[in-house]
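Data availability (excerpt). All sequences and predicted token strings are deposited with the supplementary files. A representative entry, Putative glutamate--cysteine ligase 2, is shown inline so that the format can be inspected without opening the archive.
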Amino acid sequence: MRSVGVEEELLLVDRENGEPRALSHAVLAAASRDPRGNEEVFESELQRQQLEFATSPRTDMGDLAEEIRRWRAEAARHAEGVDASVAALATSPLEVSPTLGTDERHLWLQEHFGLTTQEQLTCGCHVHVSVESDEEGVAVLDRIRPWLPVVLALSANSPFWQGEDSGYASYRNRVWGRWPSAGPVEVFGSADRYHQQVADMIASGALLDEGMVYFDARLSKAYPTVEIRVADVCLDASTTVLLATLLRGLVDTAAREWRDGVPPTRHGVALLRLATWRAARSGLEGELIHPETMRPAPAEAVVRALFDHVREALDANGDTAGAQKALAELLDGGNGARVQRRILHRTGSLRSVVAECVRRTLE
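Structure token line:
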């Protein structure tokens, strides 16, 4: 059974007013003094209003859920010591002036990308799924491309930007797309072609290194995994686990197709970009672009198509019942974007949105 690991980026906010606070260094210092020795789990990110953690590789989704909740709680505990809270929000609902980190890499990004770097306060969820080789990994990347916008729609959790409703379910995706290497990619066909493409991109001088290859899904440079990076950080930990479950099924399905000689669907990047835009705009409301037909279809029908596509793999992994339950709850209660807008409609206050999301982050 393939292992799965999750990286979540969390927003650090003031405990009283919900405004993002540049406290990642203080929170990491608190973690380093913790006798439990979990400081290596947490890392700083591009902006100092962010904190990231990574789980261990897991094969059991119950264990993965437990670890995600544990590290969310530990992050909150460390933040509490500096009068802050953590929120699983992909963008800040309240206005913010991001505070860039000060290491050499961050300064290089600021020099080369200017306002794109300065404004890039977004929190994502990255899911790592193990593969047996780079060749299998690239075969998987080639075959999961049309399904990634559906994953974005499920995770969408960033409707607000600088105190305003963006009109998008995932405005994080639109902001993230400003990086020149971000987004959908073409079919590579082989590991050699993938690595040559990455080498050529770095040789262009536009990217600092392989870490700046921000494809929606890529081969991890550190682990024997495919790293799927398209999702917003999810408000509820249960949604994160659902994504991890579906993505393991998607990788299993793609690898089986490759072994069976089934060629990848060759939708062009232009169509995939449109499908990604539609997912970012709509989330689970209205229509999405169906991955098989590239035509509009109701969002729930497209989500069901993803579930059906990976059903055999879910059955083999013993994940079907848990995924069915979590998916039904998500479709009924809504993703983070719907929840945030519902809170705003009820309270009329973006500060209340943040406060409620802080609570749900740890639920």
